[in-house]
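Workshop exercise sheet. Pairs work together: one partner reads the sequence aloud, the other fills in the structure field after running the prediction. Swap roles for the next sheet.
Pair: D.N. / O.F.
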Amino acid sequence: MMTLRLTVLIFLILATIAPAAELAFPIEKQQLDNGLMVLLIPDHSAPSVTVQVWYKTGSKNERPGITGISHLFEHMMFKGSKNFPKDKFDRLVNGNGGVNNAWTSFDNTTFYEVMPSDKLSIALDLEADRSRYLQINDSNLGSERNVVINERLWRYDNSPFGAMYEQLFNNAFVAHPYRWLPIGFRSDIDAISLQECLDYYHTHYAPNNSFLVISGDFDSVEAMKLVKKAYGSLKSVPQPPPIKTVEPEQKGEKNIDFHKVAQLPAIMAGYKIPEGKNPDIIPLQVAGKVLFDGESSRLYHRLVYTEQKAIFVQGAAMVLHDPSLFYVAAQAVPGASMDSIKREIFEEVDRLKTEPISANELQKAKNQMEADFITGLQSNEGRASEVGSYQIDTDDYSNIYSYPDKIQAVTADDVMRVANKYLTENHRTVINLIPTKPPKPAAAPNTEEGK
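Structure field:
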């Protein structure tokens, strides 16, 4: 029994001082003459392959009047292309045992297929064709516009927390295009014209404004032959104009009362933080783990578990290409004081500035970050997504290799330093959800005679 206890104790000690993991997978970089970068991640452990196309266009590349057009194109890209009409596109993917989907963010729009490894050419042919010959017409625009409007209603207009999230970005940013969400403003979605869609497509969806990530069971030489066959004839276009607007420094707290139909009050706040490749991002991520991650995190343990004032509390440092937000959100239990919850949240954030976190708490947060990161790399799709994200967020996919070491290098002083630098009242925007009751339905007219 003593030997067992000693073994367990040694294991626990090692778990708290674990060295940074080494990433064993290779990434091969190739580039076509038309500017298309190709990142190859061979892995023969399973007979499948993931193809991801990352377009370097997201909501930040839009302008007032066409906000939401990148997300609209996420939907339009599934309406078929010259050589692969919609029914043929889906039939080829699903009929060959594959799946496909897409997502739109502030900085990018990404499309992917997961296919059996011997069907790699199908995914490449499909993506190349819709990159060049997408069917853009009034019918497709009208149908997808309606889909996007319904998505906006569901995710934002009729959702208290979706609406708060939009309010946070609308108010935190005054100049940079992060001030609107990828979903776009409703009036812009309604008004985007066919010509604006054509112009946007021909400007942004080109080989020199995108890159491919291929991860899985393939031979690199043969894969590049297939890439050149599918993409080699596509022409490059002039690069879209860069985002020149720099968000001015925020010099005072913005505190907004947001009245909306909801059952319970809530808060969402955001602190201005730097761009994704800034070295201060990782200590800020550690701070987020300490405050929010898991039942033993400071704010969850205090507000949800011990005091039972909040239904939930969450937050994190958002990693984007340009300066972003460190956000926090919480909702009160019935009868709890939202002012008290807000005060305690800000107390815990401010505590990071004056009290160094303990060695055990720091190591636990760093180990959680590293474990989450490594877990995300276990599948072909996960590796492709992480590599693509590093290219988008930091302008260099190879930064993925140094991430574990940089996590483990964070010190308690680093966390205190970034908390004092960024998590300040002057850099904070607060959205206070004030619940309102739904309007009463109009009374039915009385049509009885004589009344």
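Discussion prompt: The domain at 28-232 is CATH 3.30.830.10 (Cytochrome Bc1 Complex; Chain A, domain 1). What would you look at next?
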